[in-house]
Automatic annotation (TrEMBL):
Protein name: Autophagy-related protein 27
Xref: Pfam families: ATG27
Species annotation: Acanthaster planci
Record keyword Protein transport present: yes
UniProt domain MRH: residue ranges: 38-171
Statement: the UniProt record of this protein carries the keyword Mitochondrion: yes
Leader sequence residues: 1-29
Family: Belongs to the ATG27 family.
Length: 255
């Protein structure tokens, strides 16, 4: 019986390695890289985004997911996507761990690192001693859910959560559109309208007085007497108001 030569065996081995590499690479290509935009979102190569900011709560409402036990029941965990929160047990954290005797913060929003584990995208949060790892699972459900896994490996400093939401899907949740800085407030619009009306009044009135009635100089100003006397009338009104206030204060002192 003839055995394959060493060259044939080497060729088969190389081909096998190439096939394995191609299969592994194609499996990885199913999950394109998502590059971090900010603490709450990342961007895929096709331009789509994964954005979880609409899940998290801010202010007194936070955290979105309040304390719930891990599978062993030894610890309870609270988690708030995207935004730091503070409570009785932790301050300025993305996640908090507690039991009857102790409590620990598990990282901050600003420490967010976006990545993947080959199956789904993950966000990692860290502090000096502890690490929170959140698996993002794409779902069409209207409400997000959080599964607390806690410590699932030999490491006592890694804590795992699974966040299931439509916001974990590419373009599943869009970031809120910031208000336009060029928009005018209602007060600004009223001021513009008032200014235009005053301008039309003076220009139109002056043209009427000059070309229709033949007035010239100061007399061409519409209602010239009113505008001439207006500063003096304002001054008299201010004096009258101040005088009333002084009289009222004297009456109060006498009483």
């Amino acid at each position: 019986m003839a055995f394959p030569s060493s060259n044939v065996r080497a060729t088969c081995l190389i081909n096998g390695l190439l096939i394995w590499t191609l299969l592994f690479s194609s499996a990885r290509c199913d999950l394109p890289k998502c590059t971090k935009i900010d603490d709450c979102s990342c961007k895929l190569s096709d331009g789509k985004r994964i954005d979880i900011r609409s899940i998290g709560y801010q202010g007194k409402q936070a955290p979105r997911f309040n304390f719930r036990p891990d599978p062993l029941g030894n610890w309870e965990y609270a988690f708030n996507p995207c935004y730091d929160f503070s409570n009785t047990y932790c301050k300025d954290v993305i996640a908090c761990q507690k039991n009857n005797q102790e409590s620990y913060g598990l990282g901050s929003a600003s420490s967010a690192v976006w990545g993947d584990n080959g199956k789904q995208y993950i966000i990692t949060y860290t502090d000096d001693l502890r690490t929170t790892i959140v698996d993002l699972v794409c779902s069409t459900a209207s409400q997000p859910t959080l599964d607390v896994l806690g410590q699932t490996d030999a490491s006592k400093t890694n804590y795992y959560f699974t966040l299931t939401s439509k916001c974990a899907c590419p373009d599943g949740c869009q970031a809120p559109t910031p208000p336009s800085s060029s928009g005018l407030s209602s007060g600004s619009i009223l001021c513009i309208i008032f200014s235009v009306l005053v301008l039309v009044y003076f220009i139109g009135g002056t043209c009427f007085m000059k070309f229709v009635r033949g007035a010239s100089g100061k007399d061409a100003i519409p209602n010239a007497d009113f505008w001439t006397e207006l500063p003096a009338n304002i001054k008299d009104g201010a004096k009258f108001t101040v005088g009333l206030c002084k009289k009222e204060s004297k009456y109060e002192d006498l009483s």
